[in-house]
C-alpha cells in the first residue's frame, strides 16, 4: 500500500477529519475561483454602469442602475468600426486555426508514423525553436511579409503563426500511442499514407485537435503587437489592435472601454465552453503518450 493510499485509509477511518479536510479544500477552491472571477465580474458590471456611477467614490461590484448605452455607443460609432474589427479577427482566427491544424497534423504524422533518416534529429531541432522568444522573430517576419507585399493584408497576420511547433509536439505524442497495426492493416488493403493519415489516424486525434484549435484560436484572437505592426488602416485592423486606438479615444470613459473588452472576450469564452470536454481530455492525453 502506497503512502497516499495509507493516508486516505486513515482519513476514511476518521470521518470527521475527512469531512473537515474536504470542506477546507472546497473553501480554498472557492476562494481561488473568486480571485480569478472578481476582475472579470467587475469588468462586465462596469460595462453596464453609467459613467457617473463608475467614477463614484463608493465603489460597488454590481451596478445600481443598468444601462445599455455603452454597448450602443461603441456599436453605432462610425469612427470606431468595432463590428468590422470583430469580423476581421474572426476571419483571421478561423483561417489560422484551419491551416495550423492542417500543417501541424501532417508534420506530427510524419514524425510519428513515417520512417526516414534523421527523423528524431529533425524533430528535436524543431522543438528547440520553442526556446526562442517570439519577439526576436518580429523583425525577420516583417521583412518577409513586406517582401511578399502582404503588409496591411489579412495573411500578414495568419502566415507567421503557422510555424509553431507546440502543436506538432502534442499531436506527435498522441499519434505515437495509436497502434501501428492500424497502418499495416490499411496498407494491406491498398491505402496510401495520406489515406491512413486522413481516415484512420486523424479521427482518433479529435480531443487533441480541439485542444489545439482552442489554443491557436485564442492566440490569434488575442494577438496585439503583431497586428499593430503590420496594419496601417482601420479597415484591416483586428479587434485587439482596434481597441488600442479605441481606448485612446475613450481614455476616461471606463464603461465604454469595458464594453469593448467584454465583446472581445465573448468568442474565447464561447469556444472554451463548447470545447471544454475535448479540451480537458486533450490536455490529459496530448502530452502523456510516448
Unreliable parts = 286-290
The CATH C-level class name: Mainly Alpha
- Structural class computed from helices and strand pairing: mainly alpha
State the domain count. Answer: 1
Helix count, DSSP H or I runs of 4 or more residues: 15
> What is the CA-CA span between the terminal residues?
27 Å
List keywords for this structure.
290 residues, mainly alpha, MetI-like fold, 15 helices, disordered C terminus
Q: What can you tell me about this protein's structure?
A:
The protein is an all-alpha fold and 290 residues long. Helices cover 70% and strands 0% of the residues. It has 15 helices and no strands. Helix 4 packs across helix 14. The C terminus is likely disordered.
Summarize the model shown:
By secondary structure, this protein is mostly helical. It contains 15 helices and no strands.
List the helices and strands and how they pair.
Blueprint: H1 3-13, H2 15-47, H3 51-54, H4 69-76, H5 82-113, H6 119-128, H7 138-147, H8 166-175, H9 181-188, H10 193-204, H11 206-222, H12 225-230, H13 239-249, H14 254-274, H15 276-286
